[in-house]
Amino acid sequence: xxxxxxxxxxxxxxxxxxxxxxxxxxxxxxxxxxxxxxxxxxxxxxxxxxxxxxxxxxxxxxxxxxxxxxxxxxxxxxxxxxxxxxxxxxxxxxxxxxxxxxxxxxxxxxxxxxxxxxxxxxxxxxxxxxxxxxxxxxxxxxxxx
Length: 145
Fold this sequence. Notes:
By secondary structure, this protein is an alpha+beta fold. Helices cover about 45% and strands about 20% of the residues. It has one domain (about 5-30, about 45-80, about 105-145). The longest helix is centred in the C-terminal third of the chain and has 35 residues, at about 110-145.
């Protein structure tokens, strides 16, 4: 594996995890938003990732993914979480229905914080991998001196 390939793989992971953290921050910011552009409460957003696969002759010997070697991760898109909104009893709220219940976003702060910690750790792991590849490249250059 070339050093630049290792850089690209780590960079793709950094980009994906940064988007994941941005999405989580957006979910947390809208945890109490009862009115959205679509009408109704805000819906939690979730990024969808997919592997970047190398199906060249060099990747054909790998048993993973039908003979393709992993080349990093790509963001396929950001989708709305289909789970139903939470119902909170608050008859004084301007968005309360006839029974006094307000439809709140399907964002659970504790779950978002756990996802944020996971994304942060994955981001840090990609930084460590990037720094290790950089260190190996520097050591290889020093051998030639």
